[in-house]
Amino acid sequence: MSDTRRRVKVYTLNEERQWDDRGTGHVSSTYVERLKGMSLLVRAESDGSLLLESKINPNTAYQKQQDTLIVWSEAENYDLALSFQEKAGCDEIWEKICQVQGKDPSVEVTQDLIDESEEERFEDMPETSHLIDLPTCELNKLEEIADLVTSVLSSPIRREKLALALENEGYIKKLLQLFQLCENLENTEGLHHLYEIIRGILFLNKATLFEVMFSDECIMDVVGCLEYDPALAQPKRHREFLTKTAKFKEVIPITDSELRQKIHQTYRVQYIQDIILPTPSVFEENFLSTLTSFIFFNKVEIVSMLQEDEKFLSEVFAQLTDDATDDDKRRELVNFFKEFCAFSQTLQPQNRDTFFKTLAKLGILPALEIVMGMDDLQVRAAATDIFSYLVEFSPSMVREFVMQEAQQSDDDILLINVVIEQMICDTDPELGGAVQLMGLLRTLIDPENMLATANKTEKSEFLNFFYNHCMHVLTAPLLANTSEDKSDKDTVVGSNKNNTICPGALRFMRRIIGLKDEFYNRYITKGNLFEPVINALLDNGTRYNLLNSAVIELFEFIRVEDIKSLTAHIVENFYKALESIEYVQTFKGLKTKYEQEKDRQSQKLNSVPSILRSNRFRRDARALEEDEEMWFNEDEEEESEAVIPPVEKSKSEDDFPDSYEKFMETKKAKESEDKENLPKRTSAGGFKFTFSHSASATNGANSTNSKSVAAQTSPASSNGSSSKNANLTAAVTATKGSLVGLVDYPDDEEEDEEEETSPRKRPRLGS
How does DSSP classify residue 31? Predict the structure, then answer.
């Protein structure tokens, strides 16, 4: 493994002038034949892939910043940066770059930053000195200095020369001494000139100058100079805000002085960029790119230093979850974590992964559970922001926590239920917090971002958990609004004029059917949920309105998409009531689809030799009867029966046609009976079924509605009665939707007798 000296992060500057992390790897300088020169190569530490291959161009300007950064431009709008883990590694690569370009490694920049047109212009000029001659730093020279600084901003080469002159002569500290003198003398004109000078120096965009200006010794005087904008009638009081109004709150005392200094510096520089300096114009937007980079890398360093201090973070979490912690203290702790997580967005993916895993290990999620239930709106808002960072980073981590939590806690205090309750109870008229929480909840229950591996099926596990432990909390407000209508099923999606939820309920059902998911389809048919929809359509009569169109569209979708299970359910249970609707062909089309599917199934059944048909491929009771004919035989002379495997020739082949004819007669009689039992419209608006149980439908001792019965007998008796077994006087049937067992045990005989004597049970529609 390469040593840590060469370990770097690769950054690129995007169109919004923000640094994007491209990954971590190890840098080397090597001659690349394809590029015909020495090049910088960075290979990813994770998989060895090439993150960067950049030829060291003799004319490219490389800049060394903050001892661990090397920044340069590959093209007009393509800036690159290498951030080294160690200063020694940065110095080593910097020497290689300077060696290629023939420069002294002590310089901070290897080339003058000039464009081609300006370079040509300077080639025609007589040889000039390497540095700009600065006027002496005196009060009467301030106007001259201001003019000089302002004049060089349009020229890249002169900006570089001025920056070098300012750095070499320690000029900035001399200017700040003049500022103190002018302020004591109330020299307004001099203060206005100093504003122009300091603003111009910031626009030189030099990291080495920033390190001087933003040091503890100088930064408040720099802010003071920027208070005296000539365009303002009265100077702003930025220093007063930074020293008196803005308070540095240490939720836990920070003992590392370097970390403390870095936090102060970052806050103040961010304040200068966001508050004091005017928004740069299109022509000035690149002037402060180095300032943006300065802040960015400071934040990375702060997060890294805090993360490495495990004692500090452990103490923060201990106080956050301690019941004895007062509300004000807890508010400060939550705000600290919010800012901490915001800073973490500057980390590269691998480091960000480590960061959030560290927080999870220390107990960030149980802590959020506590603070999200507090009454303080500010605390809840900050906790929601922290939760959003965690969900965005790893939804799986949050899901795993809430499922483990469910094994130890009641449903009411589960984190995800706390989130749902906060969403439902949001007091904001614009529902800002509720919308944010809704998005997070949607991310958590979205099956598309759930893992499914050989050892772990997160999708099924979490969705089962959610429906068992959380769905009742999510639907509670909806059920509360409809509780008054529970006695009348039709009003769920009925045509009651006072029922405002009707369109919403119908739209909800349409969305579910639109998923074309058989799980939902089975639930709809099992619960007979089409009944109130059809009642609403029939009660609406011939009126052509929104309800009529919505219901017709629902059934038309089922017809067009050919959802077979729903088509069969509608035709078999409701077609008698719907066949009179002829102003659309939807219901006749559903009947046609149903009959076509039945014909296809019949043809498919006939094309397969009956001996090969297996009951496991069919669920319909009528389709099972022929299958059972091949598998079961009844012995009239014996009280018990034997199961005869179909591979044995226990049945006389000559008797088979006769027995099949008898069986088909029984089946036809049963079907003709069922046709008389179609639903009839009742005066209450529902449907009722009437049944006739004729003696002809039951042949012998077995009812057509009884469970399959096959008792046991000795093998000897089966041989002696093989010809008699051809009689299908006890054709075995099964109730609709159930599976047929091969053997019923003695314990079931009593139950079977009860079912044989009871009439057939079918669901009643309506009330």
Answer: E
Q: Give the confidence band of 456 by pLDDT, cuts at 50, 70, 90.
A: low
Provide the residue type at 261 as one letter.
Q
Residue 56 and residue 39 in contact, taking contact as beta carbons nearer than 8 Å: yes
Name the 3-class secondary structure at 84.
strand
Closest CA to 90 of 62, 107, 69: 69
User: Which of 103-107, 373-377, 734-738 is least confident?
Assistant: 734-738
Q: Is 383 exposed, middle or buried (0-12, 13-18, 19+ CB in 10 A)?
A: buried
Phi, psi of 9 (to 5 degrees): -110, 140
User: What is the overall mean pLDDT for the chain?
Assistant: 75
Q: What angle do CA 599, 605, 610 make, to 5 degrees?
A: 155
> What letter does residue 763 receive in the DSSP assignment?
P
3-class secondary-structure state, position 63: strand
| Rounded CA separation 468/197 (Å) | 68
Q: What angle do CA 294, 312, 331 make, to 5 degrees?
A: 85
Over the stretch 492-551, which tens digit does the pLDDT of each residue have? 454 444 443 467 888 889 999 998 888 889 989 999 999 999 988 888 888 888 888 999
pLDDT-based confidence at residue 178 (cuts at 50, 70, 90): very high
**Closest of 735, 726, 728, 580 to residue 664, by C-alpha:** 728
* Residue 290 · residue 108 · CB < 8 Å: no
Directed axis angle between helix 116-124 and helix 156-168, to 10°? Answer: 70
CA–CA dist 473, 475 (Å, integer):
6
Its pTM stands at: 0.52
Q: In this structure, are residues 629 and 663 in contact, taking their beta carbons and an 8 Å threshold?
A: yes
